[in-house]
């Protein structure tokens, strides 16, 4: 914990790490809003990867499923699904049977009685690699309404850290390019949806709470606490004589405050 003080020495704000609690809070909020995140912070369950095949099977038309599966087949360097071949095979089974025709083929195809649907489902259940997710999300980005659908490739702060997030809701239009501003009053997680998602998945958070010169806060001051993303400070609750330069820069720019280190007289 680091305490910051204004130049007259009349106002104090303590900065503390709150990454664990805030990660849980922001994940729950984003999930409630419909964002499919790559993992659940504290429990196993559905995530953006396990939910994707379910979405594809339920949402895509048969034609779209075959299109997507054939794109995957191309990336796997295997033979694509060919409806004509399946149709000809189907009709060969019913030669001379006047009760069967092309309408029956497509009816059975739609209801899952044909092997082609099993092939689609099998392909959609085997999406695991970065390359395969690129194929799927590129396809969805191309065919879906951009006011109802969006996907994000979120990159972390270390080499190899990548995660996919997606969102779909056709009940109303959505602006995925909206910008957010830090008003210095409410919690702030980023200036865009992508930045918010990046911080939620890979970032860290600190809380800023008004306090006295000993770091103590009353109920009113606790109610004025705000959280900001993208900063890290030691998670020790005891007063520290060290501070983080990025937090220092933020506090000086936004609040005109500097670290009130433990060796200054008014902290004694």
Key words describing this protein structure:
268 residues; alpha+beta; 2 domains; 15% strand; disordered C terminus
Task: Characterise the protein shown here.
It is a single chain. The protein has 268 residues and is an alpha+beta fold. It folds into two domains: 2-23 and 204-267, no CATH class; 46-147, no CATH class. It has ten helices and eight strands. A five-stranded antiparallel β-sheet has the order 7-6-2-1-8, sandwiched between helices. Strands 3-5-4 form a three-stranded antiparallel β-sheet, with helices on both faces. Strand 1 (2-6) and strand 2 form a beta hairpin. Helix 3 crosses helix 6 (115-124) and helix 3 packs antiparallel against helix 7 (130-143). The chain is elongated. The chain starts with a strand and ends in a 9-residue tail after the last strand.
- Categorize the overall geometry: elongated
Number of strands: 8
The portion of residues assigned to helices is 40-55%
Arithmetic mean pLDDT: 85
Distance between the termini: 16 Å
Strand content: 15-25%
Strand order of the largest sheet: 7-6-2-1-8
- Class by alpha and beta content: alpha+beta
Topology as a string of helices (H) and strands (E): EEHEHHHHHHEEHEHEHE
> What Rg is obtained from the alpha carbons, in whole angstroms?
27 Å
What kind of sheet is the major sheet?
5 strands, antiparallel
Continuous helix count: 10
Number of spatially distinct domains: 2
Which oligomeric form is depicted? single chain
Unreliable spans are 263-268
């Amino acid at each position: 914990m680091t305490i910051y003080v204004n130049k007259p020495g009349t106002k104090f704000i303590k900065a503390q790490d709150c990454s664990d609690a805030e990660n849980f809070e922001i994940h729950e909020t984003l999930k409630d809003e419909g964002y499919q995140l790559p993992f659940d912070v504290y429990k196993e369950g559905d995530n953006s990867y396990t939910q994707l095949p379910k979405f594809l099977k339920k949402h895509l038309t048969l034609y779209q499923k075959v299109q997507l599966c054939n794109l995957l087949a191309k990336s796997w360097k295997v033979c694509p699904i060919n409806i004509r071949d399946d149709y000809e095979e189907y009709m060969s089974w019913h030669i001379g049977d006047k009760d069967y025709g092309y309408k029956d083929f497509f009816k059975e195809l739609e209801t899952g009685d044909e092997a082609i649907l099993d092939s689609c489902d099998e392909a959609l259940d085997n999406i695991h690699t970065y390359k395969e997710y690129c194929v799927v999300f590129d396809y969805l980005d191309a065919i879906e309404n951009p006011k109802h659908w969006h996907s994000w490739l979120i990159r972390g702060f270390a080499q190899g850290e990548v995660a996919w997030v997606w969102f779909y809701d056709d009940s109303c239009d959505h602006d995925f390019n909206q910008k957010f501003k830090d008003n210095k009053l409410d919690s702030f997680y980023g200036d865009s949806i992508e930045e918010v998602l990046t911080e939620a998945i890979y970032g860290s958070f600190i809380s800023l709470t008004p306090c006295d010169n000993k770091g103590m806060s009353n109920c009113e001051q606790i109610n004025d606490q705000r959280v900001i993303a993208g900063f890290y400070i030691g998670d020790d609750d005891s007063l520290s004589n060290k501070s983080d330069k990025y937090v220092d820069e933020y506090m000086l720019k936004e609040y005109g405050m500097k670290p009130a280190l433990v060796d200054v007289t008014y902290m004694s």
